[in-house]
Specification:
The chain is α+β, with helices and mostly antiparallel strands and 144 residues long. Helix content is 37%, strand content 22%. The chain has 4 helices and 6 strands, in the order αααββββαββ. The longest helix has 21 residues.
Length: 144
């Protein structure tokens, strides 16, 4: 029995990099774009607005940006994006995380700019912020 497809948010195990996964990501992303064409919207469609974490994770994974990953104990073991619901807001937070000592914080600015460059043409507003201890992240929400 196959498991249902879910875009990598960076909070689960690393998806096996294989042709099957690549095809599933590509098919899901093309489906998302097809919904936009059918609904005649240029930005995020209703499903994306209702499921922004999943929609943004799908867009980033489809663009070939690597997600972070955690093991069964919740320890981060891979460097990449993490998509989560923003605290106290309707938007989404995108961070660049990695295991301790990985240097992820040094790559965060450039990597988050790559994420924003993927999301903005798809109709998402991606604003860069710096939180406590100079931790960089994006706040993302639908344009308009």
């Amino acid at each position: 029995m196959t498991e249902p497809f879910g875009a990598a948010t960076g909070d689960g195990p690393m998806a096996s990099p294989d042709a099957g996964r690549d095809a599933a990501v590509r098919t899901a992303f093309e489906g998302l774009l097809h919904i936009r064409r059918v609904m005649d919207v240029s930005g995020p469609a209703r499903w994306e607005r209702l499921q922004p974490v999943r929609a943004i994770a799908l867009a980033l994974e489809a663009a070939g940006i690597e997600p972070s990953a955690v093991d069964a104990e919740g320890e981060r073991y891979a460097t990449g994006y993490r998509v989560s619901a923003a605290e106290g807001a309707t938007g989404v937070r995108v961070e660049w995380l990695g295991p301790p000592g990985s240097g992820a914080e040094y790559a965060a600015n450039e990597s988050l700019r790559r994420c924003a460059a993927v999301l903005r043409p798809l109709g998402w507003v991606a604003l860069e912020y710096r939180g406590p201890r100079r931790h960089h992240y994006l706040e993302v929400e639908p344009a308009g």
